[in-house]
Amino acid sequence: MPLVLKYKIEEDSELAVWEVKESEKILLSHVNLSTIDHERLQLIPHPKKRIEFLSARVALQMLNINADGLNYTSKGKPLHPDYKVSLSHNHQFGAAIIHKTAEVGIDVEDISRDVSRVKHKFVRADEERIFEFMKPNPGLWIWGVKECGYKMHGRRKLDFKADMKVCSTEPNSLDNFEIQFPNESLKGGIQHKIHDNALIIWCIERLDIVKSGDKR
Prior knowledge:
The protein is α+β, with helices and mostly antiparallel strands. The protein has helices spanning 24-30, 35-42, 47-61, 125-131, 138-153, and strands spanning 3-10, 13-19, 71-72, 78-79, 84-89, 93-99, 104-110, 165-168, 177-181, 184-195, 198-205, 210-211. The radius of gyration is 17 Å and the shape is globular.
């Protein structure tokens, strides 16, 4: 069973990472999908993407959370009756994070992924300065943090550059961050682990999303 990481982050929060190895048939035998996830799975045409989708749900189940309780908002954000949930997957791993009360976001990236040619589409100059200490690939970190913020915010059609700005209150630290959206902001902490060439980034909300003027 390729559970490669199960990590208790704090009292009310855990994450799990499942390595993408089994067939779709075997994964389906490990997980109890909700009706809506069965429907979503049938809409994924590529077999490899279906396995990635299932791996994230198996990771969730490794946290003793029954995946058949998953539902989604109209914007696609996961909903569970007992926890805040975020899911991510790539060709290597499926990942899940839960928290009893705070919004959470998780992202899994290949740490060698080169985003240099496209980073102008999602990176602001001031963000690059904040993340420059995250060598050797600060652009990938910015992408991962914005992916987490996007999932926490729970709305579609956000432009990662025009609609999202990452701020940090501490130099060379991501312990306290703020992601500014139009008319809203989200504050929390950023953590990570590196496993087998994968960068796993997660964010946990520290304060409720607060209404504010557009600070950008």
